[in-house]
Amino acid sequence: MIPCTKTGCHRWFRNKSGLTQHVNVYHPVLPSVNISVPVEQCQESSAGEEHSQVLPDGYGDSGNPLDDPSNSNPLAEYVGPGDRYYRNYHPNLTGRPCDSLGNFLPAGHPAEPLTDMRPDDWSPYSSRLEFELADFLFTRSQMSAANINELLNLWNASLLSTGGQPIFRDSSEMYKTIDSMPLGDVQWEKFSTSYTGERPTENVPPWMNDTYDIWFRSPKEVIRNMLSRPDFLDAIDYRLFREYESATDSRQWEDFMSGDWAWKQADTISRDPATHGSTFVPIILGSDKTMVSVATGQNDYYPLYLSIGNIRNKVHHAHRNGVILIAFLAIPHSESSRHLFHSSLAYILHDLMPGMTEPIVMRFGDGHYRRVIFGLGPYIADYEEQVLLACIVRGWCVKCLAMRQALDTDALYRSREHAEALIEEFDLKNLRDEYGIIGDIIPFTSGFPHADIYELIAPDILHQIIKGTFKDHLVEWVESYLKAMHGTAKANAIFDDIDRRIAAVAPFTGLRRFPEGRHFKQWTGNDSKALMKVYLPAIEGHVPVEIVRTFRALLEFTYLIRRNVITEETLVTIEDAINHFHKHREIFRESGTVQTFSLLRQHAMKHYPDLIRLFGAPNGLCTSITELKHIDAVKDPYRQTNRNKPLGQMLIINQRLDKLAASRRDFSRRGMLEGSCLTATMQLFSTRDGRAHSNTSEAPGSNRCNEDTDEAVDCPTSIEAHVELARTPQTKRARTVTELTAELNLQHLPTILEEFLLQQLDTYDNCDSDLPEWPTYGNKITVVNAAAALFYAPSDISGIGGMRREYICSCHSWQNGAPQYDCAFVNTDSGLKGMYGLDIRYPCAVVRWFDRVGDKPDTDTGMWIVRPAFTAQRRPSIGIIHVDTLYRAAHLIPLYATRPVSRNLKLHHSYDSFTAFYINKFIDHHAFSLLSDSY
């Protein structure tokens, strides 16, 4: 038996690994802070310090019945229009407003104003123009200091003749102004860490003797800034809840706070009555290696990001900076250096520890103060990071105890308690061989209350499913299968035809083009996502139906788990998709393509239903969020540096970006950024001159969403779908019905137009008039080349309200190139659900109809099949529809079957060269929901 050597501790252990874990958990030694900030920082106000104080004992005795620990009944409320859904809220952690000292306020008590600054106070900037210029140069243009100086020199030279004053003399003055803004100011700090464990007697690895610098920002202050953001006002959950459909009492999961993990944590935390009435704030972390380590010439840097579980998933979809860079972890190249990684994380997060057991007071974006209790939540990471975090041997599952040679079997979940018992019982070798546990390294979570690293590992859709199971497994297996079945020569011919099929797919908004097929030197996550949308029809006819069904099962699983709202019925469908995937993939083993399905990334699929129940919809916890953050927080700032010791410059750049973003939010909240800078300046001058202001600016609060060209649109969620024609008429197109008849070569167009006009007059059904008495249209017409469809698609890239825009085109030459005639869904019967109430149209306004083939989707691919419609005289079925019946764009992929694709086929000929098409439900998540049919 081995005793603990710490003074006052009387524990004994059977082996060294048990002693190691005990010391790390109960007697941790944290590194000390050496130096502070890289730039001059503003001091926190005394008021800010007061608001973060730990509340004294007994502060929770408010007399409110919600603070009574015996009150365990959930609070139920209807949510949304029509009372279709209701929520049960946690009865104890209720997010009650309080004052700055933590005293609860009576219901309905108004919040204090967020600021007492006037609506014309641009401090520290002198004017809107000065702020907008700084924001444009530093945030949007990301201009270097040298280029900023050159631009300002030219600008200032132009002012000499008029006697004008320059806005900024040079880049240094602009940087100083940005740095003086206290909003968003969380200083960077640095500490040094080194290995303090046992060393070998000889050949000591260099990393054991080295000292490593870690740059970080206080996570508590970062969270304070996030909670106080007014732009999160309608996108943050103060309370934990379970949501149900009113008619069936069926549960559904959406944002993080709807999951069982948060509720279970609240149950544990609220055993202490002093926490009642508080707001639970789960801490979500994420880290990943980045190539910036090569540029810096130092050891690997791991950017560490932080978010909070209160922020709803739509904030992440809208890329609204709900994930913040809080540290760069400097870790050397060695598996044995995991000690440094975990001790660094533990130190960075140590200022959150007091707030995990005793609430502290923080201010929220609605102006109210609330008591806050922290909890260590999910960690977003790819597999290489997961094994590092969980102290698991590579090749083992970090979630369960399945043997790495038999990952396709079921096994119990790992847990902190079970791992600690094993470590005390077995030696290090048995732990590695039998359980995949590295017993002499303790996860950083061990020192935090209620934190189980095995439970907290988040799902990773990007690496486990999209890049892993789809690209690295199935796509590669298809190539191996074809070579094994047909030989290399014939297989290469089939590959060429598959590539031509992929290259011939008609264009669509947001669809990545594959002009050369699948051949890439390096695949990115976006490449894999794009290939998923078009790959299934491309291989049909070249592979057995079992392989087609394997891909269908995986694709449907992927799109189901990416839904914004997942119901109990959806979970059943997800499990069905997993079962079908396991059933149909057997063809690869039977054909000898693969020998085993003991594969980590495919094994991970079976954990998704339970992870959804724990954490809500997994699209809010994917590594694609942190990888996208790399661009803003690491790669773009690096490009702004002079490459000489760039890390310090990158820290300053990130700090200034945060300050500018905070300033923009503050100015927007005070209504100071309405309209453009030009119109606001014109209004200011006209007011000073006593002239009436011309109607050149937008009305305050107006939304310019119709002029936004991005796919994500920040419009209110007030409609399901809306279509508007382009505002610019085409001067080179037909201007009369006669000219349009000739242009489209449709001799019966006037007749179709008359029928349409009768329908609009609601006289068609009762009309017995002869044809000559029907209304005619002899006036001029306007032709446009496109329409914009705005619709609610929260599972796709969308605005903070879940709205998304796409363009529907119909023109002879799109952007001076080939013609583009898009397809669209038309609502022909609003009383029918999904595809049963929709038909497909070819051009816009004047449409060519498509007919459904059958009453159900295709059995193998799961996609609906359509073909061009014809009249009784075998003429194409043409119609004219009102724009209000358009729903959104549709994407068709030819039904290739076994027909080889010509090398001369161009993508803009795709719709004219085939007689049957799949409606591509995998083009995006909204289309998948619209067109899906369960097994």
- The unreliable regions are 30-71, 293-299, 691-710, 840-844
Mean pLDDT: 83
**DSSP summary: helix tally:** 29
Span from first to last CA?
Answer: 59 Å
User: How big is the Rg?
Assistant: 31 Å
Per DSSP E runs of 2 or more residues, the count of β-strands stands at 29
* Shape, principal axes of CA atoms: globular
Strand content: 15-25%
Percentage of residues assigned to helices: 25-40%
Summarize the biggest pleated sheet.
9 strands, mixed
Structural class assignment = alpha+beta
Descriptive key words:
about 950 residues; alpha+beta; 8-stranded antiparallel sheet; 29 helices; globular
In brief:
The chain has 935 residues and is α+β, with helices and mostly antiparallel strands. It has 29 helices and 29 strands.
Please characterize this protein's 3D structure.
By secondary structure, the protein is α+β, with helices and mostly antiparallel strands. Helix content is 35%, strand content 15%. The protein contains 29 helices and 29 strands. A hairpin with a 5-residue loop joins strand 14 (360-363) and strand 15 (369-380). The radius of gyration is 31 Å and the shape is globular. The protein starts with a strand and ends with a helix.
